[in-house]
Amino acid sequence: MKKLLLGLVCLVFLCLSATIGISSDGEQGRIKIYLQNKCSSDVKVYVKSPGSSTKYTVDDGYKKPFEFLEGTKVYDEDGRKLIVEVTSSVSGDTFIVCD
């Protein structure tokens, strides 16, 4: 009976440890930057993160906060001009997407 109880306690401990590890890893490496649009029309940016890519819109005249994984690259809409590669050294910085 003691072995069964000890086994259950160990199993619960391992499950909790794995869950906590997964949730904290999800937040690691996220870096906040700002994208600012100084144009009079909305601007789309192409964002390529590790494992995925998407487009975001930065509204005209606005400075918009984003949180990206380290290593994410932000390009112009066509994906030709690199605006910023997200690293810890750019945390909190503002990048102009159109001026």
Architecture overview:
By secondary structure, the protein is α+β, with helices and mostly antiparallel strands. It is built from one helix and seven strands. The protein has one helix spanning 2-27; strands spanning 30-37, 43-49, 52-58, 63-69, 73-76, 82-85, 94-98. The strands form two sheets. The protein has a four-stranded antiparallel β-sheet, with no helix packed on it. It has a three-stranded mixed β-sheet with strand order 4-1-7, with no helix packed on it. Strand 2 (43-49) and strand 3 (52-58) form a beta hairpin. The longest helix has 26 residues, at 2-27. The protein is globular. The N and C termini lie far apart (72 Å).
Quickly list its features.
4-stranded antiparallel beta sheet, 26% helix, globular, single chain, alpha+beta, 99 residues
The gyration radius over C-alpha positions equals 21 Å
Tell me the distance between the termini. 72 Å
Number of helices: 1
Structural class assignment: alpha+beta
- Quick one: how many beta strands? 7
The helix fraction, in percent, is 25-40%
Largest sheet, in brief, is: 4 strands, antiparallel
Low-confidence stretches: 15-26
Question: Could you outline the blueprint of secondary structure elements for this entry?
Answer:
Blueprint (H helix, E strand, L loop, with lengths): L1 H26 L2 E8 L5 E7 L2 E7 L4 E7 L3 E4 L5 E4 L8 E5 L1
Parallel strand pairs: 1-7
Antiparallel strand pairs: 1-4, 2-3, 2-5, 5-6
